[in-house]
Every structure is written in structure tokens, then in C-alpha cells.
Design a protein that fits this description.
Blueprint lengths: L2 H16 L1 H6 L6 H23 L4 H6 L2 H24 L2 H8 L2 H12 L6 H23 L3 H23 L6 H22 L7 H26 L4 H23 L5 H21 L11
Helix pairs in contact: 1-11, 1-12, 3-5, 3-10, 3-11, 5-6, 5-9, 5-10, 6-9, 6-12, 6-13, 7-9, 8-9, 8-13, 12-13
Length: about 290
């Protein structure tokens, strides 16, 4: 695959993911756990079929190969997926997606603490700048009564960071089997939580269909495109290209639903995204020492 083709695939993936917030806004009654369950029902078959295609008909062997690291990473994705859905329901799309972008910095912090990984000076500076941006956004959310959504968004970013860390810990170059496990674990966790709450998975059919289409068409297909494209793109450039999702997500809900965000959200988000872009640009000047963070 050529570099240009990889760029197109990654940007297409980011564009698909950017519609996630708009799709969740179309759901009427289903709560976080019901959406998580049915979205995973739509996502898992798509990713499983992709693994079967890549492994020439031996997907179970690929799933077994991920071991403990893949299982722990899958559990991290439960937190990431559930936190993201709740955050989008509880705060503005702009607020949620900007805070999701903190995940690479949380991964760097966890990697330094738990795996003793080297963190570049430029990344420490970017982490400090990102911290200022997150503080501005969280403070704004507290003033507007949206603190729960901000916390959920940060927990989601932490879940993705934990997933990334387990890939490096287990030296897993293929993330897709772990994502499938994350989808399966998400279905189990959602069913258990709803059962404990005395709630039902049988939400309105429209909500089920939207959730499943979201899982298969946006999340699942996006993951396939991203995985294919990321094979020929350095990690730092992947980070920059993935910012397309963060930029577009607030645009869709503004154009379709008239949803806007506060000045504090855009100020803090702008600071955070500048930190992400600066860290990625500085990383493009050196050979990455770890597999791409996906």
C-alpha cells in the first residue's frame, strides 16, 4: 500500500468516527449501557470478519494469541467505550471529543510510571500545556453543571490510554483482536449492569438499530480503515490525521442540530489540541521507538 492511500484510509476512518456524537444524539430513550451493548453487537461481527480475512480463516487463533495483555486491554476499552457514550450524552460534543484527545498524554504518563518508558522532553511540555487546556474545560464544565460529563470523558481517555499501554506491555502489534475482546466484554458488562439496575436491553427498536449501525458502520468500519492505513504511516503523523475526528465532530452537530459549546470549551480545547499537534510535529523529526498508538 502506498503512503497516500494510507492517509486517505486514516482520514476516512476519522471522518466516520466524527459522526459518532451526532448518531448518539439521535437516540431517544436508551441509556449508556444499552447503547454500549447494541453498538458492540454491531461492531464485533465486522471486526471478527476482518480478522478472519487477515488470518485466512483462522480468527480464533488470532484471538487466543493476545493473551493476558489483550484481555486487560479489552477491559480498558469497556471503560473507554462506556465513558465516551455517557460523556456525549451528558455534555456537549465539543467538550467530550476535546477531552478524549488527552488519551496519548495519559498513555505517556502511565507508560512512564508503570513500564518505565522514556518520555521525551517535548512530550512533558505538551502534557503540561494539555493540562492547562483540560483545567480550563473542566472548570467551565463545573460552572455549567456538566462536571459528570467531563469526568466521564476523562475516564474514557484513561481507558483508551490503558488499552494502548497493554498493547505495548504485551508487545502486541495487531490491536484488532483486543478490540474484539473489548466489544465482547462491553456486551457482558452492559448486560450485568442493566441486570443489577433492573433495566432491560429491550429499548425502542429505533435506538437499537441506530446503535448497531453505529457499531458496524462508524466504529467497526472506521477501525478496519484505520488499521489498514496505519501500516504505512508513522505514529506522529497518525496522531495529526486523527485530529480530523476532533475537528469535525462539533461541526456536524452544529450544522444538523444547532448545538454549540461555550467559549471556555473552545479555549481549553484549542490549548489541548495545540499540545497534541505540537507533540506530534516534534515526534515527526525522530524515529518512533514504539509501535503506533492506535
Amino acid at each position: 500500500m502506498r503512503y497516500g492511500t494510507g492517509v486517505v484510509l486514516v482520514v476516512l476512518a476519522a471522518c466516520l468516527w466524527s459522526f459518532m456524537g451526532l448518531a448518539i444524539r439521535q437516540i431517544g430513550e436508551a441509556g449508556t449501557w444499552a447503547i454500549l451493548f447494541w453498538r458492540s453487537v454491531g461492531m464485533v461481527p465486522v471486526l471478527f470478519a476482518f480478522i478472519a480475512w487477515r488470518s485466512r480463516g483462522h480468527p480464533i487463533a488470532r484471538l487466543r494469541r493476545v493473551g493476558l495483555a489483550g484481555c486487560v486491554g479489552g477491559i480498558g476499552l469497556v471503560l473507554a467505550f462506556a465513558g465516551a457514550i455517557y460523556a456525549i450524552q451528558a455534555t456537549t460534543i465539543a467538550n467530550a471529543v476535546f477531552l478524549f484527545a488527552a488519551s496519548p498524554f495519559l498513555a505517556a504518563l502511565l507508560g512512564s510510571l508503570l513500564l518505565r518508558e522514556y518520555v521525551r522532553s517535548a512530550t512533558w511540555v505538551a502534557i503540561a500545556v494539555a493540562g492547562v487546556g483540560m483545567f480550563v474545560m473542566v472548570r467551565e464544565g463545573l460552572a455549567m453543571g456538566e462536571m459528570a460529563g467531563n469526568v466521564a470523558a476523562l475516564l474514557s481517555a484513561l481507558g483508551f490510554a490503558a488499552f494502548t499501554l497493554t498493547l505495548r506491555w504485551g508487545k502486541l502489534e495487531d490491536m484488532m483482536p483486543a478490540v474484539v475482546l473489548g466489544g465482547v466484554f462491553s456486551m457482558i458488562a452492559a448486560a450485568l449492569v442493566l441486570g443489577l439496575q433492573g433495566a432491560s436491553l429491550m429499548v425502542p427498536l429505533r435506538d437499537i438499530l441506530i446503535s448497531m449501525l453505529m457499531g458496524a458502520g462508524l466504529l467497526g468500519t472506521g477501525m478496519v480503515l484505520y488499521t489498514l492505513g496505519s501500516r504505512v504511516i508513522p505514529a506522529a503523523e497518525l496522531t495529526l490525521l486523527s485530529m480530523v475526528e476532533v475537528m469535525l465532530a462539533p461541526v456536524w452537530v452544529f450544522l444538523m442540530l444547532g448545538e454549540t459549546a461555550s467559549s471556555g470549551t473552545f479555549l481549553g480545547g484549542g490549548i489541548l489540541m495545540a499540545a497534541v499537534a505540537g507533540n506530534a510535529l516534534s515526534g515527526m523529526r525522530r524515529k518512533p521507538y514504539a509501535p503506533p498508538i492506535t
